[in-house]
Write a structure and sequence with these properties.
Elements (H helix, E strand, L loop, with lengths): L18 H66 L2 H7 L5 H18 L3 E5 L5 E4 L14 H9 L1 E8 L1 H5 L5 H5 L1 E2 L13 E2 L2 E11 L5 E10 L5 H10 L4 E2 L2 E2 L1 E7 L2 E5 L16 H9 L4 E7 L2 E11 L5 E10 H52 L15 H72 L7 H31 L8 E4 H19 L3 E5 L5 E4 L1 H17 L6 E8 L4 E9 L21 H4 L7 H11 L3 E7 L3 E9 L15
Parallel strand pairs: 16-18
Antiparallel strand pairs: 1-2, 1-7, 3-6, 4-5, 6-7, 8-9, 10-11, 10-14, 12-13, 13-14, 15-17, 18-19, 19-21, 20-21
Helix pairs in contact: 1-3, 1-7, 1-9, 9-10, 10-11, 12-13, 13-15
């Protein structure tokens, strides 16, 4: 069977897609595109749903943490308020109690303090001096440190909140509280890169209540507080209540932390060694939002050694200053596992659906393309000149294919009939073509014979007319000189026509002699040609300006290049303006190429007519140019010669100003190689 060539006659590569695979490819592209979009959307929606839901859970957990934290604040407040209404508290502060009663009250208050989980419970007199402490070493008589809670209690009678106490204020409340408050700050991944330090201040939940006498006048205050540094009760209560002590891969699922500034002072976040990460710091991203801007943070964050879905809120003292952070978080890894499993299931289902869709697409493509495949096979047999080929026109479900099959059979019938007529016509055409070739050969032989036989007599006529004009036989008068000039012009026109027809005959018969060699263009081509056309230039009152260096060399046939220059310079004189300048100059073109330009001043031509000038027997339909006699062969012969040299020629013009002919020739240097057909260098 005849195969279809890969390249058609126009040089274009034939289409390589088949209908069957194109249909399948279109189905497959839609399936793959839809599946890819589905996977991307599924991944995005699943991620947003799983992680988003987990993040919302963390935010709710933070609300629960705040409820537990506020409950602890209220616990301290209620304890302080309960102590403030005791009769003995009022008597001690009013100094109406004896030593035994004071000691008994101290023991009772210490029991209350311990039962309520407070770190201190202190009675303060109206002058701000401590009347009683309930924690060893039971220091008294000093002026109590004035923090925002204690200040507000003096002003309003009751206050509670979170405050930051300096180390000395913490130390005086109990002999072991200073050690509990002191924390070494440790380097932590993703935290601020500040210098390591030791934290000595304490973060405290504190409440203060005024103690009133029977007349309602304040006689002092009860101050209670819980030191949050290293405290486990609040973080563990949050974890146990909110997260129900769940674990993931051996680690607590949920964690809670209380920060003083950016340092963890109470936490159940664990280090790599399994100890509580006291002294580690919050990440820089959280610090910028919560501590620097005083805003909540709700997002994933790096916590000590892992990623968590987190919620951070600033802890503020009664003056609204940010003194710390309350945090809850859930291990992100658990929800990433949920997301991965959901996505894997979704991708598996999508892939299975895509495979089924692709199999269906392949079956549909095969079914749809089968009638076309039969028609293609028939067309190939027809192309292989099997003119008896026909296709079935019945069956099938596609009306268009039925019409196409019927049209193919009609075409085959017509082609069969026309083939016989074509064979007969081709036989007659071959006979006619042979006759035409013989006639053309006879014509070219006659043309060559006539032009060759006319050349010598015409040269003698030109010589004779020249002799008469020069007065070698006698000085002619004015009327005789005018007639001799007219005869000379006609003889020169006939000589030009004869030379052009002679060259045309050689070109048509591929007998143009071509012997290239390396030659100096100015000396052997341009200057001799200028001498040859000098009489025409002088008669037209023109001037030739030449800018071609002596050292420019080209690879070419000297005689053929003189024909090129003669045609171009003769045209420049013939169609140029009287008393104008003809310019001939040289330019460097690409490497190894010499470019020459010849330009005259005159009528010129339209730029789009430039290519027409080089056609055989072509002359432009311009009144000024029709007045000049010519054969329409000079530029055709010129281009044939230039192209034979491996160069190119083109024409440019600006109407009513100038016309320019440019041509490129292969150049060379002395000692270079010769052209393709011989010669020496």
């Amino acid at each position: 069977m005849q195969t279809v060539p890969d390249i058609d006659r126009g040089g274009r590569r034939r289409p390589w897609l088949s209908i069957r695979w194109t249909i399948f490819g279109a189905f497959a592209l839609m399936v793959l595109a839809g599946g890819s979009v589905s996977v991307v959307l599924g991944y995005t929606l699943t991620s947003d749903a799983v992680i988003g839901e987990a993040q919302r859970r963390v935010e709710q957990d933070l609300h629960s943490a705040w409820a537990l934290y506020d409950h602890q604040v209220e616990n301290v407040r209620h304890t302080a308020r309960f102590v403030s209404i005791l009769r003995r508290t009022r008597d001690v502060l009013a100094r109406d109690a004896n030593g035994a009663e004071v000691e008994d009250l101290r023991r009772r208050l210490e029991v209350i303090r311990q039962g309520s989980g407070l770190d201190w419970l202190t009675l303060v007199g109206p002058d701000g001096r401590v009347a009683m402490r309930t924690r060893p070493p039971y220091t008294a008589g000093d002026i109590l440190w004035m923090d925002p809670v204690r200040r507000d209690a003096v002003l309003t009678g009751s206050a509670a909140g979170t405050v930051r106490l300096p180390a000395q204020a913490v130390a005086v409340e109990g002999d072991d509280l200073a050690g509990q408050a002191a924390i070494d700050v440790r380097p932590t991944p993703m935290s601020s890169s500040t210098v390591e330090r030791r934290l000595v201040d304490g973060l405290v939940i504190e409440a203060a209540e005024a103690v009133l006498d029977d007349a309602g006048r304040p006689v002092g205050h009860v101050v209670g507080g819980i030191l949050l540094n290293r405290d486990r009760a609040i973080p563990d209560a949050i974890r146990d209540t909110v997260f129900r002590n769940e674990f993931h891969e051996g680690r607590p699922l949920g964690t809670a932390t209380i920060f003083l500034d950016d340092v963890r002072i109470a936490t159940n976040v664990l280090d790599e060694d399994g100890t509580r990460a006291i002294g580690t710091r919050v990440s820089r991203a959280v610090e910028e939002v919560v501590l620097d801007q005083g805003q909540p943070y709700r997002d994933r964050a790096f916590v000590v050694n892992d990623w968590y879905l987190t919620a951070y809120d600033p802890l503020r003292d009664p003056d609204r200053n940010v003194v710390g952070i309350l945090y809850v978080g859930i291990l992100e890894a658990k929800f990433l596992g949920y997301r991965t499993r959901l996505i894997q299931s979704f991708v598996a289902l999508t892939a299975a659906g895509m495979v089924l869709a692709l199999l269906f697409a392949l079956a549909m493509a095969w079914w749809l393309s089968r009638p076309l495949k039969r028609l293609i096979d028939a067309a190939r047999r027809m192309a292989a000149l099997d003119l008896d080929t026909r296709v079935e026109t019945h069956g099938g479900v596609f009306r268009d294919l039925h019409t196409l099959n019927h049209a193919f059979n009609q075409m085959a019938d017509n082609l069969d009939r026309e083939s016989e007529a074509l064979v007969r016509a081709n036989t007659a055409l071959q006979a006619s073509n042979g006759d035409l070739k013989q006639l053309n050969q006879n014509y070219m032989d006659m043309l060559e014979f006539v032009t060759h036989e006319l050349k010598s007599p015409l040269a003698s006529c030109l010589f004779g007319v020249g002799s008469l004009k020069e007065g070698l036989i006698g000085v002619p008068n004015a009327e005789q000189s005018r007639v001799l000039d007219a005869v000379e012009r006609n003889l020169e026109y006939l000589n030009e026509m004869i030379m052009n027809y002679l060259n045309l005959s050689r070109i048509e018969k591929n007998q143009l002699r071509f012997e290239p060699r390396l030659l100096p263009f100015r000396k052997e081509v341009l200057d001799p040609t200028l001498d040859q056309v000098s009489r025409q230039v002088y008669a037209a009152g023109m001037f030739v300006a030449v800018d071609v260096p002596e050292e420019v060399q080209v690879h070419g046939d000297r005689d053929l290049l003189r024909i090129v220059l003669d045609n171009l310079l003769s045209n420049a004189v013939k169609y140029g303006r009287q008393n104008s300048t003809i310019r001939v100059w040289h330019e460097e073109a690409d490497e190894g190429i010499q470019r020459f330009r010849i330009q005259n001043e005159g009528k010129g031509f339209k730029q789009e007519d430039g290519d027409k000038l080089f056609r055989k027997f072509s002359r432009l339909d311009v009144a000024e140019l029709r007045a000049k006699r010519g054969t329409g062969l000079g530029l055709f012969i010129t281009r044939q010669i230039i192209e034979r040299h491996g160069g190119r020629i083109w024409a440019e013009s600006r109407e009513n100003q100038w016309a320019r002919f440019s041509f490129d020739l292969p150049g060379g240097t002395v000692g270079g190689t010769v052209g393709e057909e011989g010669g020496t260098s």
